[in-house]
Specification:
The protein is α+β, with helices and mostly antiparallel strands and 137 residues long. The protein has one domain (29-133): Translation Initiation Factor IF3 (2-Layer Sandwich). Helix content is 29%, strand content 34%. The chain has two helices and five strands. Strands 1-3-5-4-2 form a five-stranded mixed β-sheet, covered by helices on one side. The longest helix has 23 residues, at 3-25. The termini are far apart. The model has no long low-confidence stretch (mean pLDDT 80).
Length: 137
């Protein structure tokens, strides 16, 4: 075997080992729903968090007298947009709203988009105003 062929095969083998080693050590994608609650000016503090009592309605719905608490925004990146991802976003929204003492989310933006990366990643988004039932004295 000639020296050039031996050197070529050796360098090719080392290059393949480096490529496979890099692929095997790449971190796996793990997505978590992230969100924020922004309180309104002079918004009262939450009393008892109860995620079961949080209702999510579309903009334009007729509302009984509710007191504005603030704004909520949640985003969740995932490989595929399906019912499970939507459920994860709704659970995160309910948790944030319940912690703030809210009872209702009036959705202004909601849905999913697909990005143009090598693996299409879906982005599930829900944003809306947070309200609490008015207390009558």
């Amino acid at each position: 075997m000639s020296e050039n062929l031996y050197r070529t095969l050796l360098c090719g083998g080392v290059a393949l080992l480096v490529v496979f080693g890099t692929i095997l050590t790449m971190p796996r994608l793990h997505f978590v729903a992230r969100g924020i609650f922004l309180p309104a000016v002079n918004a009262p503090q939450g009393i008892h968090p109860n995620t079961q009592g949080v209702k999510i309605v579309e903009a334009g719905a007729l509302l009984p007298p509710f007191e504005p608490l603030g704004w909520v925004s949640v985003q969740y990146h995932t490989i595929a947009a399906d019912w499970a991802t939507e459920h994860t976003v709704l659970r995160k929204v309910r948790a944030l709203v319940a912690d703030a003492g809210g009872h209702l989310v009036l959705v202004t933006v909601g849905g999913h988009t697909l990005s143009s990366t090598p693996k299409p990643l879906a982005s599930q988004v829900l944003q809306g105003y947070v309200y609490r039932e008015q207390e009558w004295n």
